[in-house]
Amino acid sequence: MEIPHLLTAGHRVDHSHRLMSIKPMRTYPIICLYLLVATPLFLQAQDVTIAVKNDLERNRTDGAITIAAGTLLEHTGGTADTPLRFTTDGKDVTFQALDDTRDGHTDRYVLLLDLAAGEQRQVTVRPLREGEAAPSFPKRTQAELSHKVGGRWQDREYLDGTFTNVDSLSVPPEHTDHSWYLRYEGPGWESDLVGYRFYLDWRNATDVFGKKTTAMVLQDVGQDGFDSYHEASDWGMDVLKVGKALGVGSLATWHEGRALRVEETDSVSATIVANGPVESRIRTRYHGWKVGDRTTDVVSELSILAGSRLTRHDVHLSEPLDNLATGIVKLEEGELIAGQSGEWSYLATWGPQSLAGDLLGLAVIYHTAAEQEVTADEHSHVVVLRPDNQRLTYYFLATWEQDTQPIRTREAFVAYLEVQLSRLNHPLTVTFPAR
Fold this sequence. Notes:
Layout: E1 27-29, H1 40-43, E2 48-53, E3 60-68, H2 69-76, E4 84-88, E5 91-92, E6 94-98, E7 108-115, E8 120-127, E9 136-138, E10 141-144, E11 146-149, E12 152-154, E13 157-159, E14 162-165, E15 168-170, E16 188-191, E17 194-198, E18 206-211, E19 236-238, E20 252-255, E21 258-261, E22 267-275, E23 279-291, E24 294-305, E25 311-317, E26 324-329, E27 335-341, E28 344-351, E29 360-367, E30 371-376, E31 380-385, E32 391-400, H3 410-425, E33 429-431
Antiparallel strand pairs: 1-9, 2-8, 2-33, 3-7, 4-5, 4-8, 6-7, 10-16, 11-14, 12-13, 15-22, 16-17, 17-18, 18-19, 20-21, 20-26, 22-23, 23-24, 24-25, 25-32, 26-31, 27-28, 28-29, 29-32, 30-31
């Protein structure tokens, strides 16, 4: 089962925030050069101008919109794979074409725009001209999965071998925590502001990489030693102690008075669905998740956008399970904070709770209507959530005192969270011309 994205043209959540200027980075080609042999459908493709509006009374940097490829096709003609260019005021708009279904065809486009308070911007969508090169953009997100090859299993440990990156992996039955098989123990994803990983084993908990740079760093993490990332380095470090808790934003269920992570399953597989300049995404399938006497399959999708600290988590269950949960590790140095605005609420912690002993802010953001209970167990602050038709979407984030846009006071952290809620409550809107 797949998690279909809401590919509407007028209602796309913006979960990014103001970005500082960055140094030039690697560029990432979006699509190949225009094919010299055009099809009749391509010859019918035409330009179209859409209107993108910021309804907020504040500026938005790296505001994100998503447009379904089929929606564009209705207005431009051509085919779903016709190479496109997006421009405003004669300048390229940063975008990425995404193949969510992994069938070789574009399903949607995600665009990034900077808009002033209340501004409406005209964006022209046009097919590439014959011989015209596709634009490329700095790589500001990344997702990866790396495991060892060339070694051997001895009981539950993988001996020798070297790490190689893969697009997908079915987790071998021998694998468990500290098997030395996966680089930094699972998939990782990052934006220019923060990095995350989750343990691809029975723990299934999310951890945080604090970053001191806007450059992509995951490709180098853990290469010089299995857990060297726990030590401070030029790029940053692992900043969160997870232990038996939910880390930040881990999927769980509220069962017999505690948060039960996705621990007991029949099998697990993970796929890097997107790894691009604007969005990166990881899809994980858990077959046979056992919760008491109930069993369900789970599809989990974790995604991040450029210029954003937020990870979006889309969850789809094969069977009903009405007490899903997520939350934040309970640390002595972290003050619990909660807030609500419009359709969204947050549960957060703030304080000198990082592994470096400095300020770390953690939060989960969820639909207020989905909330059943805010509670806690021995290890975690927990919010119990009700899925809608066996689906659930929520967000989580981390801020670190040493990152490139540091938040250093409780008041600034709360203000930042309120901005995130306002962006979720007032997504950028897209209007197509009347036909």
